[in-house]
């Protein structure tokens, strides 16, 4: 018996209206999704994606990480990104595998909502804040990354559907993406030869599935669902495992870049010159004809002029969001690395091997 599901859900907002279309930026919010089959061996791919800044959101499944792996494996030297992960609990019965992760640019102010774990099934939920746009009917987007093993029992999927139901809200769009390993469902015709909890959920909550191409051989395994019409330009990308990767855009502009606001670095100030300016200034002559208010204004301007001349301003740094002790450790390591690279080959002692 087939279970027919509507192909397109009814959006709460007409995103193709002229008012919304005219407000769009030429730089849409882009998302990259991939089944990794171990991210440990794909770190160079991930570093390239992060450094390109094309994608503000990177969704990964089958990360194969565990508690011994640091988040640095995901974000590397890209501190402007934040990582969220849910690793599979390794057991003697099931061994390695599974796991999901989301990597989000900090301009979206991502916040972890919750995670889900069941037998051979993992998911993680993160809210993205888009309050930099006043013309949208929502201020957040909820994104859920999923991995379901082919061996996961039906009860795990039912538990996940129950988990999803509590996360839905009419106030914000919800994007669900990942490898569901449900090859017997016809996602183009949106029908199934047997009853399936996921199809029922999609139908009941007006979700649409947006990936129109198979991602592994002829199977539609990696899927992207959304309950609003905000997803477009879904395209296959080069794989980093035995699955095609997926890229798509949201009908929402990317957040504007965060501009660095400089501050005075007083520890590098020229205090000798500052003291000399104050000591040698003829305050009697300067303030003689001024009342209290004008004297205060004069003094403030004088102080600011001296500080502008003698105190350097801070410069933007990729480490700005880290604690001071971490900045110091990183700076020391960088200096040591630079010192070693500047040494010539004659600087190092060598041991000759007798012929």
Automatic annotation (TrEMBL):
GO molecular function, one term: catalytic activity
Pfam families: Exo_endo_phos_2
Top-rank lineage group of the source organism: Eukaryota
Protein name, as recorded: Endo/exonuclease/phosphatase domain-containing protein
InterPro entries: Endo/exonu/phosph_ase_sf, Endo/exonuclease/phosphatase
């Amino acid at each position: 018996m087939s279970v027919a599901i509507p192909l397109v859900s009814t959006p709460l907002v007409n995103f193709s209206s002229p008012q919304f279309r005219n407000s769009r930026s030429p730089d849409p919010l882009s998302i990259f999704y991939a089944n990794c089959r171990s991210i440990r061996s794909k770190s160079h791919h991930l570093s390239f994606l992060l450094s390109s800044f094309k994608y503000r959101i990177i969704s990964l499944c089958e990360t194969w990480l565990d508690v011994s792996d640091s988040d640095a494996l995901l974000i590397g030297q890209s501190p402007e990104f934040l990582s969220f992960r849910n690793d599979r609990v390794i057991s003697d019965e099931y061994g390695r595998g599974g796991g999901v992760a989301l990597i989000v640019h900090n301009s979206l102010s991502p916040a972890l909502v919750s995670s889900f774990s069941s037998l051979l099934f993992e998911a993680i939920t993160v809210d993205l804040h888009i309050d930099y746009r006043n013309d949208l009917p929502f201020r957040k987007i909820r994104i859920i990354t999923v991995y379901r093993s082919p061996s996961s029992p039906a009860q795990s999927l039912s538990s996940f559907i129950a988990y999803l139901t509590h996360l839905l809200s009419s106030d914000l769009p919800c994007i669900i993406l990942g490898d569901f390993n449900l090859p017997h469902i016809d996602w183009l015709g949106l029908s199934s030869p047997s009853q399936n909890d996921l199809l029922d959920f999609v139908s009941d909550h007006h979700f649409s599935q947006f990936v129109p191409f198979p991602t592994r051989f002829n199977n539609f395994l990696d899927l992207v669902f959304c309950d609003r019409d905000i997803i477009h330009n879904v395209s296959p990308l080069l794989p980093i495992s035995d699955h095609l990767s997926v890229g798509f855009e949201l009908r929402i502009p990317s957040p504007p870049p965060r501009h660095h606001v400089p501050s005075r670095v007083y520890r590098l100030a020229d205090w000798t010159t500052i003291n000399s300016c104050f000591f040698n200034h003829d305050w009697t002559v300067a303030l003689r004809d001024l009342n209290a208010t004008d004297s205060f204004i004069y003094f403030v301007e004088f102080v600011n002029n001296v500080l502008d001349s003698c105190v350097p301003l801070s410069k933007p740094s990729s480490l700005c969001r880290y604690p001071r002790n971490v900045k110091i450790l990183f700076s020391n390591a960088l200096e040591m690395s630079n010192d070693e690279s500047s040494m010539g080959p004659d600087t190092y002692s060598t041991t000759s091997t007798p012929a």
